[in-house]
Design brief:
With about 350 residues, the protein is of the alpha/beta class. It folds into 2 domains: about 200 residues, D-Maltodextrin-Binding Protein, domain 2 (3-Layer(aba) Sandwich), CATH 3.40.190; about 110 residues, 3-Layer(aba) Sandwich (D-Maltodextrin-Binding Protein, domain 2). The protein has 17 helices and 10 strands. The chain is globular and about 65 Å long. This is SsuA/THI5-like domain-containing protein. Keywords: Signal. InterPro entries: SsuA/THI5 (IPR015168). Belongs to the bacterial solute-binding protein SsuA/TauA family. It holds the Pfam family NMT1.
Length: about 350
């Protein structure tokens, strides 16, 4: 009798636990829908891959990827996303940069931004003429008076100005044709212009047509980072969701750092074909993954650490501001823009970052 009673009690509690689990699942909150904005390039592969693996759901998010073809386009449609990624220049040149907060780094793309020329360009006849830029092709006389095709309000414009400065020139010494990347390439292939400034993957189209790299952001000491940013009001109202997003992204960063290019190649091709609308060759995949540097959580915490007067990220942004505005901005305005940078959300990321396997 006693055994029967105990057996009945165990059965009752087992049923109760099962019902409790069912009720808990039934009343579990749906994932938080997070609208995000991206360009068809390297950093977006990380969040696309994370989405394919369901890592966003594991953090209580439903990340929606919205595509834009340039940083200017992304910033101009800021009402369509609350977290996005692009270079610093489109943010700073937007009418209301103070509506954003910079929460992390997507990648370093200094080797992916390039000045490209035709293979018969006289620029390619000389290398290292300026001892301060040993990897720079050409001389000032090869550039002066030439027509340069360059998308406006983009990281390419920053590279253009730094490239000219390496020769002791300014934008007044050349003719600039402001055209977006795709129509710019079409115009260049049609015979217009003497050089074109591009970023990956558009530069790979240039490679396919035989164009040559005359300079990169790295060769003219103009480091370029893709920034992760959030709508400031959204981030203030939803700090845990911002931190969860970063945890998802940084999980993919860990994968990119630890996995071989060969392991990533097929997924990378699929991403570019299905999401970015570009067919990547094996050589392009290897190059694109290799030339983009990504940063682990501990790296980013150091970059955003403002223990002293400014963080490394704020110092870098200050150089972009000086380029953009010169002496036009007051010290107060500059400090206001530097205040867009915050490591607060990186600090909130739950550790350790999960395994990606």
């Amino acid at each position: 009798m006693r055994r029967s009673t105990l057996s009945g009690l165990f059965g009752f509690f087992a049923l109760l636990l099962a019902l409790t689990a069912d009720l808990s699942a039934a009343y579990q909150e749906p994932p938080f829908k997070l609208e995000t904005g991206w360009l068809p390039e390297h950093e977006t592969f990380l969040i696309w891959y994370a989405k394919q693996k369901g890592w966003d759901k594991q953090e209580g998010l439903d990340i929606v990827l919205n595509r834009f073809d340039s940083g200017k386009d992304l910033i101009g449609n800021a009402d369509k996303w609350v977290i996005g990624a692009c270079g610093a220049f489109p943010i700073l040149t937007s009418p209301y940069p103070e509506q954003f907060t910079i929460i992390g780094v997507g990648n370093d793309e200094s080797l992916a931004n390039a000045v490209m020329v035709r293979p018969d360009s006289p620029l390619l006849d000389t290398k290292g003429a300026n001892k301060g830029y040993p990897n720079l092709y050409g001389k000032a006389d090869d550039v002066r008076g030439k027509t340069i095709i360059c998308p406006a309000s983009s990281s390419a414009q920053y590279l253009l100005t730094k490239w000219l400065a390496a020769y002791g020139l300014t934008t007044e010494d050349v003719r600039i044709q402001n055209t977006d990347a795709v129509p710019g390439l079409q115009a260049f292939f049609g015979g217009e212009g003497d050089a074109i400034v591009l970023w990956a993957p558009y530069s790979y189209t240039g490679d396919e047509h035989g164009l040559k790299v005359a300079a990169t952001s790295r060769s003219v000491n103009a480091p370029q980072s893709v920034l992760l940013m959030a709508d400031k009001d959204f981030a203030a109202a939803h700090p845990s969701q911002v931190a969860s997003f970063l945890r998802v992204y940084l999980r993919a960063v860990r994968m990119m750092r630890e996995e071989s290019v060969a392991t990533l190649a097929e997924d990378y091709k699929t991403f570019f074909k299905e999401w970015a609308g570009k067919t990547m060759s094996d050589a392009e995949v290897i190059k694109d993954i290799t030339i983009h540097q990504v940063f682990l959580l501990e790296d980013q915490l150091r970059m955003f650490n403002a223990e002293h007067s400014r963080s490394d990220m704020q110092d870098w942004l200050a150089s972009i501001i000086r380029f953009h505005a010169g002496d036009a901005y007051s010290q107060d305005k500059t400090e206001e823009l530097l205040g867009l940078v915050t490591g607060a959300f990186l600090e909130k990321v739950e550790r350790p970052i999960p395994e990606y396997r």
